[in-house]
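Cross-posted from the bioinformatics board.
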Amino acid sequence: MTRVLVVEDDPQTADEIKAALGDHGFEVQHAANGREGLLKAAADCYDAIVLDRMLPGGLDGLGLLATLRAAGVEAPVLILSALSGVDERVRGLRAGGDDYLTKPFDFLELTARLDVLLRRRSAPQRQTMLRAGKLEMDLLTHVVRYAGRLIELLPREYRLLEFLMRHAGQVVTRTMLFEEVWNYRSVEPTNVIDMHISKLRRKLDPESAEPVIRTVRGAGYVLRATV
Amino acid sequence: MRLFDLPHTTSFRLALRFFLLFGAASLALFGFLYWQTKHYVEGRVDDWLTREQGIFSPMDRSNLVQRLNAHVVADPSLERPLTLFSPAGQRLAGTPLNLAAATLETMPHDDFFKFRFRQGRQDIVFRGLAHRLPSGDLLLVARDMAGTRAFGVVLIDAFIWGGLVTAMIGLVGAAVVGVDAVRRIDGVTRATQRIVSGDLSERLPTDGRSDDFDRLINVINGMLGELERLMQEVKGVCDNIAHDLRTPLTRLLAGLERTRRREGSADDYAVAIDEAILETRGLLNTFAAILRISEVESGARRAGFTDADLCEVIADAAELYEPMAEAKGVRLLVASDRSPAVMRGDPNLLFEAVGNLVDNALKFTPRGGCVTIRAFTGTGTVGIEVIDTGPGISRDEREAVLRRFYRAETSRHTPGSGLGLALVAAVARLHGMDLAINDAGPGCQITIARPTSGGSVLIAPPAAGADWAASEGAGKVPA
């Protein structure tokens, strides 16, 4: 079972995160401050750490993160913060964080991102070919085939599909797509991204009743790993 | 202002300080003049004494006595006494100066000295030169110093009177300067008190002299204008939030109550819950948008400024919105004057602003229409404009559409939060850009632009939001 440590000082937020991650099938441990977080993270082996940026006491989130990384703890860390500036995000990632989520956030967003982080750790780094069901993507020649049929994609559609394929079987939120594919950090225009996805769907298999890219209500999309 | 407050005013004190400095300088100058003049006059007297002594000393005794006695007749008022004393101190000839024996003994020989002689009631001061003749007699040549002293007295009198008049002028001048400054400061104080007590439309008074004080007041008035605008906006936002959030909250509550009343199947409940989630999500998005506008307006985002290429930003925005335009049957065009159009800014926020403008334009442009995005630089401005072929925004609504939650009557039933243009306005203000809404005849042209140089990003022009009326037509937008 995947074990996640949540370092969050606000008891209510902590309870909600614990409940959401528990429902998602994770085993969750909680630490209420930086010291406790450091002790638990160092003593035990976790698959991922969810870390609040601002913590009471002497050790705040970034300090804790730096200490953990210095101590050789390699678990992926997702930083939660009420500070939304671009430079805050950069600072968090520079301190050794793997992803950054601004409060208030959607719990589906949190679990989707954690899934991606966990997968990234286990996925082989140097691939030249992505496969998901009938889909094939050659990362060197940029040739995409669906059930053997060549698919013509615009550069942005190619990147969109690549991201979905890299995380096949996982829920990918619209925010994640917007950040990864369009590379802008602002509020994502939900309906426009939906339109890009439907365009992509039409190109892949216009006739199919069961689309390759499935909409997950209230969360985002998932590319079927098999079919 | 009361008169006894005057010495406490800065201007009065400053004027007084200058006056004292000026007085000290005058005093020093006068002292120097007085000393120089006195020295000169005494020098002339000394020359004369030396010359007289040179004439009389070589004479033989009888000739000398004769000449001295003749001199007594010629100088009855003792202005230039010439006297010959015997070695014992007896007057032998010349001016009858009956000097005390002590005076004669102590007087120096062949050197100038000062002595007093009482004649009748008058005490006369003389300057003299004594010479011992070879015969042992003492020849005294002297001169009454009354004239020289009188000159000194006149000089000192002139100084005292001149000084008094100057002091009067100085004091009155300081008072006038002080009163003027106090009057202006009192005006500012009264205006400030009215502002403190709640009248935010009050402005500090200026004299129209364009001096340093006026410049300061103009800056403060600009600040007050911005404060007033923000206060009104905050008030408007509060009213609008209350009004606009009540509708979806009421809908949410009604839906939940209805579900409870009708005891439906599990599927009915699932549908009701999904509806409630959707409604709540919408509410949260609205809150997020409000918070986002506040964040942009607070200016904290300036930390993320880099060199942003507007051409790149609009190309990305066009690419993002292309499927939406396609679905609506509207052509989306990108027109760039020249590449790149670079300015200091936050590309993420600029992208969001352009996205909002394009989204808005697409929403109001009918099928078959056209939306053009243009980035421009040169002719002193850099910026972005979005032109559509929709119905346009009527002149009297152009300021209102920039307010949060404002929905034009004609767009009441179009989906949207009413926050899009407010965010664009906030982003523009953060970048020191002017937002202008113009007629594209037919359609709407929205421009955000700023001067390429000289314009400071840190201080947005005070009327950034309300400037659109002045920029009507081709004034600010290069064709």
